[in-house]
Batch of 2 targets.
Target 1
Amino acid sequence: MKAWTGVLLWMCLAFSASAQPAGDPSPLQYRDRAEEVRFHALTAELRCVQCQNQSLADSNAQIAHDLRREVLKLMHEGRSDAQIKQFLVDRYGEFVLYRPQLEASTALLWFGPGLLLLAGAVLLIVHVRRRGRAVPVASNDDASQEEREW
Amino acid sequence: MNNPAPESKTKHRLPPVAIVLGALFFLGLMGLMLYGVSRSGKPDRDSLPSALINKPAPAFSLPVLHDPSVHVTDKQLRGAPYLLNVWGSWCPTCRDEHPILTRFAETKRVRVIGYNWKDEPSEALRWLEQLGNPYMVVLADQEGRAALDWGIAAAPETFLVDGSGIVRWKYSGAITQQVMDEQLIPALEKVEAAAGGKHGAPDLGAAR
């Protein structure tokens, strides 16, 4: 498990074109348990802007440290989850949301899988119906044998 | 099989529509793959489009690296376009783009402002001393708080801001001569054209 994490971290570092600065290593200070739970739920829904296939909660990129710190600060200021998300979207774009807003530009993202599924279902139904129409005559053993006997 | 199933006798032929649709789907997938492969060679393949393009540059007030008692604000920089280059002495890629940026800055076509991001001031000063300082002024953002407002994710990153303080262009990663010729210069020409052809070095003293 540990080895895998190391490999993933290495890949993440290797593929990010740019370097990272050193940062403040002190851990985040939560006020209470509820805040910690809310923080983890929120950062798990946000994407790291540098290590793009990791969530903000998971990423070890320096910018992710900074953004986590900022998210916690905004929570302390009493902002709602929606406001914090908007704060990040305003600066880093829709990309930071794992569940982007429904807009013209993200419609394909939202409905694409459903459309593909629907297309598959339609194809399947058409195919099955066609076979259903063709097969009973040919595959009905009794009928064919009767026909032969006749 | 000496007793073949009855349906195998009736030959199933796909309707032409299905064949055409299948071929189109396959070609589409091929196209997508080729697009992916052609993109994978670009150094900025992972960079995201900036959310700030055509929006006002964020408000900031940052100390000058060479004299922290002096602060520069976004409002002081208005009136003429400027190029904001995010760098740090810890960033090897910044070293790569340094000569190209320097050559561009020496043309004095536009103010080139350094944004020293999350850096140790002594290290940053040494870096500039070793490699040369192409910047008109270097702003120091040691904590990296103001960088979040700019949507900075990594260094180097470069912004082009027009005279009215609107971000017009951004590039993530090292600026190469190609990026300079194909992206930055055209973007700058647009900015200059929109400003009514006001060329030349703007008032460099404005920010000091």
Note: Chain A touches chain B through 31 residues (CB under 8 Å).
Target 2
Amino acid sequence: MTELLQHLINGLSLGTIYALVALGYTMVYGVLKLINFAHGDVYMVGAFAGYYLGAVIGADRSPNVGKAALVTIGAMAICGALGFVVERFAYRPLRHRARLTALITAIGVSFLLEFGFQLNPLLRAPVEFPPGPAPRFFPALVDLGPPLEPLGATVQRIDILGFVVAILLMLALQWIVYRTRFGVAMRAVSFDPQVAGLMGIPVNRIISGTFVLGSALAAAAGIINASSRPRIEPLMGLMSGLKAFVAAVLGGIGSVPGAMAGGVVLGLVEEFVAGYTSSRYRDAIAFTVLILVLLVRPEGLFGKGQVEKV
Amino acid sequence: MIRGAFRSVLPFVVGIPLLAIAQAFVPQAYFLWIVTIGVNVVLAVSLNVVNGFTGQFSLGHAGFMAVGAYTAAKVSLAFAGVRIVGLPEVVSDQLAFAFALAGGMGAAALAGFLVGMPSLRLRGDYLAIVTLGFGEIIRSLIENTTVLGEALGLQGLPKRTNVVWIGVSALATIVMARRLAVSTQGRALFAIREDEIAAEAMGVDTTGYKVRAFTISAAYAGLAGGLVGHSIQMVTPAMFTFIRSIEVVVMVVLGGLGSVTGSILAAVVLGIAIEAFRNFQEYRMVVYALLLVVLMLLRPQGILGTRELWDLRFFRRVPRPRPLAATPGGASPTDVRDEP
């Protein structure tokens, strides 16, 4: 019972991270029909942005909630800007070219971030940048006290905070997508960009906004994850990004509620399977899920089966 | 038919004696260069069958290479010390190596088939992420399997790879790709690349052809794996990370998706660059990544596009035999074209 509860807690904590990252994949896929390969690396950049901001404002020496919020919002802003720049300069010039071109560019951007961050520091002050290949340790941004122990299971208070923040962010996104003019425009673009443009929707601005939104969520995910699992390294976005992509496919790529559900389901499945069998094959679990989804229900849990038209 | 067979066999008839001569004269110091370049050619040309001919995008070549390398290594270790009765030792050893390479190719082909079956049913760009994932999964499975030596890998393989094996493998890959390009199979692949929906409407079994192309490509990646393992006498999981896959992708994209000679050119140039700039390894991947982005922005079709070297005006004056069929031109999968 205790073990079950523990896996449930860990799975939810992991699942919300996947869900936040998966949202970025799914939204960009919705408006551009592009799998933004670099999205997992934006998540990595988010964690590092938090790490550097924390060092600059001294959050590691005197942790408090205000500084934690500042670091999180700062990292979200930095990644939002990164998402904007990547879209503007790498993807937009290729928008009307063959689809493979954009995919290759996305792969290029992804590896540029991964390996650019692995270079030895060129900049020494105020922070060492790029961080180099060795893992770094994310400082505790808030000191919440000892872990809770309901029914014998252990829950870190920071995990609860992370979970709550993640849920709040998802609710905020839900509100943006379904209750604001921007959200209406975004859904219109995802339905048909050409017609949306004819109806007076500024398609370019909406696509930029989608990238900013998705990247900011990824940054938040990076910070929440690093707060409970403090080891951060330049390649951390690779596997997490792939798994979040699996979550997006599981939920039905292009569907916002699907990505949230897919992320949580994937986190739970991974945690339970790894917990009850062997954690050695943890990474293989997500891909088994992917294969099953592709074979049984390629449109995902929430997706609509689409007929590709000429 | 006869001309086709002739074209398949001729490169080997001419090539093998030349390679044997080269084997005798190439100094040992350059052996690693030859392995790097030869293996790159095998990898790049075979990946081109999927990424260039078919317009799909695989990022898992290193994974299939690993399957081939480990299978070949296991076969070789099983044969170590065994001598086929009635044959001199050299012949027996070479036969065992041929058998190991064939085993590696077979295992890699099977892995390619298993990965390709589900993922190739979907739109092209799924394949990129799925294959990248699988490459990494294959590696992490190997790292966790005791009989495969976990992170240490398998050591003490016999040193069997030589200039002749490298050359013959490269030739075999090139001949395969060129013969495929002018065959019915190849035409079906090009049709899929140009327009999958139209191809399907014309009766091309798109999934079937894609899976076949993918399986063939994986088999040759396995061959490359076997060659690498038997040249440095060990296989470790670290040799087959996704970085290796990206390297091959860069070669194919740089040379031109769909151009066999382009891939060869890029494989040779990058192979030499890799060996020459060993001291700047940390910048290598950054340069590759930049190369991909800049190439897509400025020259998305790569150096040659879908053309072959002999299609260039410069080479047109050189007399050459009438082609069996017109060279399959068409738009490169990354060519400038408007999509609605």
Note: Chain A is about 70% helix and 0% strand.
